[in-house]
């Protein structure tokens, strides 16, 4: 009998955590697709479709997310599972060019293009930390982004959108979902691209995205555990996005076989 397990997405009225209901996590492969099993039962997406990925390393990473769950299942920590399900179910009905256009249009509100207009010390810090990233982005993608210290939307020379769109379009739809997840996490296409191209680390990208917040906390104080948790969560989300883009953009395979199909 073919058993399947529907990926749990949660419900706003559901407060009780879901207990872990499986012992072993495994991977099965067929025709270039990799499926996740929990006690030999296959996962399904929230919409009930077969859950699979086309990258073996990604399958291992997704299975590891499930294997890492303890007594209860923390769905909010399973970013790779959620991203993979989003690609398969496409709940928003987005096509590849919809995502590309979303990312290109996002640049006009990119967090690191807006410098402080009323705090000189903060502006100096932003210039010192953000400008090198913008300069790298301009050189890397042959564009001329410029920051503003006002409320007006920065204006970009002709060809900017086309160059960035051409670069993003080189990725497949799955990888672009990872880009979108990253941008929504740190509110910056520039920082996301710098991170994806390994110009800066995930930790650096998150720190730069939080620059103004960290500056203000330096003046007004901070609740250590709360802000540390926010920073770690952003790092976890961005790390998952980077992994997701990489695994969906490369032909990497796991060389070492997983004994018995189990993690």
TrEMBL record:
Gene Ontology, cellular component aspect: mitochondrion
Main location: mitochondrion
Membrane spanning residue stretches: none
Name of a matching Pfam family: ATP12
GO BP annotation list: mitochondrial proton-transporting ATP synthase complex assembly
Keywords of the record: Chaperone, Mitochondrion, Transit peptide
Localization of this protein: Mitochondrion
InterPro entries, per database record: ATP12_ATP_synth-F1-assembly, ATP12_ATP_synth-F1-assembly_N, ATP12_ortho_dom_sf
Family of this protein: Belongs to the ATP12 family.
Protein name: ATP synthase mitochondrial F1 complex assembly factor 2
Gene giving rise to this polypeptide: 6036145
């Amino acid at each position: 009998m073919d058993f399947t397990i529907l990926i749990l997405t949660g419900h706003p009225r559901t407060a009780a955590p879901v207990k872990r209901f499986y012992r072993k996590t495994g991977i099965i492969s067929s025709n270039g697709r990799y499926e996740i099993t929990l006690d030999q039962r296959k996962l399904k997406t929230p919409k009930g479709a077969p859950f699979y990925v086309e990258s073996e390393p990604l399958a291992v990473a997704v299975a590891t997310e499930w294997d890492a769950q303890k007594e209860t299942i923390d769905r909010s920590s399973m970013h790779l599972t959620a991203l993979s399900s989003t690609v398969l179910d496409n709940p928003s009905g987005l096509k590849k060019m919809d995502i590309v256009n979303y990312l290109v249009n996002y640049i006009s509100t990119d967090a690191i293009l807006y410098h402080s207009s009323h705090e000189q010390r903060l502006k100096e810090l932003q210039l010192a930390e953000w400008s090198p990233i913008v300069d790298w982005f301009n050189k890397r993608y042959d564009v001329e982004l410029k920051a503003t210290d006002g409320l007006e939307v920065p204006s970009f020379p002709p060809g900017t959108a086309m160059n960035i769109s051409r670069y993003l379009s080189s990725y497949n739809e799955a990888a672009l979902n990872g880009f979108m997840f990253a941008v929504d996490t740190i509110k910056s296409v520039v920082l996301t691209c710098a991170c994806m191209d390994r110009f800066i680390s995930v930790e650096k990208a998150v720190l730069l995205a939080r620059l103004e917040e960290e500056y203000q906390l330096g003046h007004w104080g901070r609740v250590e555990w709360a802000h540390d948790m926010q920073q770690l969560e952003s790092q976890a989300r961005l790390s998952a996005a980077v992994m997701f883009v990489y695994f969906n953009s490369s032909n990497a395979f796991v060389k070492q076989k997983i004994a018995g199909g189990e993690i």
